[in-house]
TrEMBL record:
HAMAP family: Trp_synth_alpha
InterPro entries, per the entry: Aldolase_TIM (IPR013785), RibuloseP-bd_barrel (IPR011060), Trp_synthase_suA (IPR002028)
Keywords: Amino-acid biosynthesis, Aromatic amino acid biosynthesis, Lyase, Tryptophan biosynthesis
Identification of the protein by name: Tryptophan synthase alpha chain
Domain of life: Bacteria
Name of the top EC class for this enzyme: lyase
Cited function: The alpha subunit is responsible for the aldol cleavage of indoleglycerol phosphate to indole and glyceraldehyde 3-phosphate.
Length: 259
């Protein structure tokens, strides 16, 4: 379902925007989901807070800590998501221990009952994720695979063989976070991935401005995932209007850039 939606948008020539938000950051966190969708998000990545987020940089870690301090749990997040309907796909990002603790079958059912169409599990190795992927695929839940600048070509091909939803190219080595300048590896990832797959190719980690989003589109990507730059504005208590302007900047850059 996630993959079909993104493929259809790409076929129309649209460059894809996937903002990341931390679930439970404050009591009104779903209003931020509504806001980014209203301003042109094609899907929304929802982080479920975890106590040991190995991939997350300081901004996302802080947001997760705030959510955990409020008593947010995976089930409470999914209950909130399931209480609403959204006009774009939702993608959950969290760590495998949460799903292991829930039980994989139960986790898949809970995700789908909440309306989630995709999931990103950065610490689930390819060789250990077969049962999860089988269960998720049966329930039409796409498991998105990550690729880093250090991933060898032969490993990329192995991962692509089971990839679903979209290809998530990690734009630089290290944890998530804003960058003043786009890492050269971000454009390199787009160039490496594009000829290898028919899936949409999105680049994330380090995308912090419209200019940086445009650069990865020119390199061959189909879109961007933007997390820390957005969450930092939320944590800084910027107004909804200011946050909307940032999403407008990204959307405008994607809409006016030619590959």
């Amino acid at each position: 379902m996630l993959e079909a939606t993104l493929q259809a948008l790409r076929a129309k020539g649209r460059h894809l925007l996937v903002p990341y938000l931390m679930a439970g950051l404050d009591p009104d966190w779903l209003s931020y989901v509504d806001l980014v969708i209203e301003r042109g998000a094609d899907a929304v990545e929802i982080g479920i807070p975890f106590s040991d987020p190995s991939m997350d940089g300081p901004v996302i870690q802080r947001a997760g800590e705030m959510a955990l301090a409020r008593g947010v749990t995976p089930l409470s997040v999914l209950a909130e998501l399931g209480s609403r309907s959204f006009p774009v796909p939702l993608i959950v990002m969290t760590y495998y221990n949460i799903f292991h603790h829930m039980g994989e079958e139960r986790a898949v059912r809970q995700l789908r009952s909440a309306g989630v169409q995709g999931v990103i599990i950065p610490d689930l190795p390819l060789e250990e994720g077969g049962r999860w992927r089988d269960l998720a695929t049966k329930e039409q839940l796409d498991t998105v695979q990550l690729f880093s600048p250090a991933t060898p070509d032969e490993r990329i091909d192995e991962i692509l063989a089971v990839a679903q939803g979209f290809v998530y190219g990690v734009g630089l080595m290290g944890v998530t976070g804003e960058r003043a300048e786009l890492a050269a590896t971000a454009t390199t990832m787009a160039t490496r991935m594009r000829p290898r797959t028919s899936l949409p190719v999105l680049i994330g980690i380090g995308i912090s401005s419209g200019d940086q989003a445009a650069a990865v589109i020119r390199a061959g990507a189909d879109g961007v995932v933007v997390g820390s730059a957005l969450l930092r504005r939320v944590l800084d208590n910027q107004s909804p209007q200011q946050i909307a302007l940032f999403i407008d900047e990204l959307r405008g850059a994607l809409d006016t850039t030619e590959p």
